[in-house]
Amino acid sequence: MTRALAPSRRRVGAADGNGTASTSRGNAGYPWDDFDPDWYARHNYATLGADDRRILQIVRDFFASTLTGRSVKQGIDVGSGANLYPALSMLPFCERITLWERSAANVKWLKEQIEADYSESWDRFWNVLVTRPRYRAVENPREALREKAWVRNGDLFKLPPRQWDLGTMFFVAESISDRKNEFRDATQRFVGSLRVGAPFAAAFMENSSGYDVGSLRFPAVAVRTADVESCLSLLAHDVRTVPVARLKDRRDGYDGMILALGKAGRAKS
Questions:
Q1: What number of other Cβ atoms are within 10 A of residue 199's Cβ?
Q2: Per-residue pLDDT band at 269 (split at 50, 70, 90)
Q3: Residue 211 is inside which H or E element, if any?
Q4: Do 169 and 1 contact (CB within 8 A), yes or no?
């Protein structure tokens, strides 16, 4: 939930002149139920940007090669927000996909998109995926998503451990708080929710100073590749990070994106 374009007005969680929250309030201090998913999806996903295309291509190839000839029972997308493409990237490989989302507004949006056939804008994202045979085998992605996905209203910080066999978390851990310890906790909760050996893909905004959704300001933690790798090293193995260039017309206030791929492992001391 990070890549909103920046409008001129701001209310809740306004940033100071340096683009950082003037008073740290942590994840619990922001109005997540007031998040506007229609605004967010319209500004970020009405068209397919080169950054999202690049992420989809890499995740597509990683999942297809890692899960060659096999499927898993349970996948999870953590902090889905108003973004369907992480779930679509897991669609051919999972019997069930949990969309774990805290915001009541986002939960409602997700259910509407899944139950009533998702909007045509997501076809552009699916078209990137179907260049691989596992995705082409899905005859009707709308029907498949409706059958496989279910939306759960849940707090990321209360994810149960070792429940899922495949996972995604896109633009979440660094974009739900202004506190670095909560970024670390969120990242590790995500990986810790996966069974040992489960593949995952996680994306992060690099050096983000926060973002606007409509008239509301939401927080971010400015993270670099080293921060992401440090968090993942404690609970994952075979980790690979890939930089993704920033789109100049996306918004100001971040340097690019960081995509991390790997497999969940046992906790290291």
A1: 24
A2: low
A3: strand 211-213
A4: no
- Residue 21 in domain: no
**CB-CB contact of 110 with 102 (8 Å):** no
| b/e sequence 27-59, b meaning 16+ C-beta within 10 Å | beebebebbbbebbbebbbeebeebbebbbebb
Total domains, the chain? 1
In the block, residue with structure tokens 């003037």: 22
- pTM, full prediction: 0.91
| Euclidean distance between CA atoms 128 and 174, whole angstroms | 26
Q: pLDDT digits over 49-89, tens only?
A: 999 999 999 999 999 999 999 999 999 999 999 999 999 99
Closest CA to 268 of 219, 237, 235, 232: 235
Would you state the structure tokens that stand for residue 44, as one six-digit string? 């970020």
Q: Read off the CATH number of the domain in which 154 is found.
A: 3.40.50.150
Structure tokens at 240: 């690979």
For residue 12, is pLDDT > 70? no
- Tokens of residue 77, six digits: 């997308």
In a domain, 178, yes or no: yes
